[in-house]
Amino acid sequence: MGFVVGVDAGGTSTRALVLDLDGTRLGAGVAGGANPNSHPPEVAAGHVRQALTAALDGLDAAKVESGVLGMAGSSKLLSDPAVAALFEAAWAGAGLRCPMRVITDCEAAFATGTASPDGTVLVAGTGSIAARIEHHELVSTVGGYGWLLGDEGSAFWLGREAVRATLVALERDDVDDLAAAVLARAAIPDLPRRERWRRLITAANAAAPIALAGYAPLVTAHATAPSAERIIKTAVRVLADLTEAARPADARSPIVLMGSLVHANPLGTRLKLELTARTSAPVTVATEGAAGAAWLAAVKVLGPTAPRP
Predict the structure, then answer these.
(1) pLDDT-derived band at 77, boundaries 50, 70, 90
(2) Which residues are CB-contacts of 9 (< 8 A; sequence separation ≥ 6)?
């Protein structure tokens, strides 16, 4: 019996999953982020190979009959032959002989949460995007412009807002628990507040922009702090609006939520409650984009009755 493989390549991590054709998990691998928009393409491709190599450890990669790469930033791979060549080399370097089918992380996430061919998916992780899915394929999106142009409600946005709130707190000499946690994470010593203000700006600008996402967990960890409460409230509204904008007003097809922020309470819990209050459609939380990608790979071999992982 042959195998199928699915990869979920995000901005922060890459996960690969190998299934046999009855849906049994045979191997899994994890590596660093593989979005070629937020990482050098050669680094991103290397992480895909690392995750695949780990997932295929002890298995005959030549027996993989179908493979799907679900990727944040897939447009860069699909539009740039040089970037595509790097990922094709990584795929082959892991021992795979089947074609590499590239889809968006939205399509993989939706397939993880439901077997329905149609509906809406919100991915809220390092970035944020909502998409309308028809026949398992993405037909339209809202958001997903990347950290520079958008990604409201994402981990990047949350982390940036945490740092901005801390700067405001220092200006007003009103440091709450979130601001204190941000200063500690940035390794800012206990100095006069204006000096801490300067050092925090310097620290934030010295790192790669995407590194601001590293401050996001502090917001939910200190959710009772006034500044964190304001950030979470805004994020929930923005993400719910993003989801609604991606679907017809009278739609009753499933909504799938995916990404690290969906699992970060209380934000994730509030987001699901907000959406269930706005619509009678089923709202599902998905946990593993690689599983959806692997299931779509199995569908290529077995059709829509392929067993769910």
Answers:
(1) low
(2) 33, 34, 35, 44, 47, 48, 51, 69, 70, 71, 72, 105
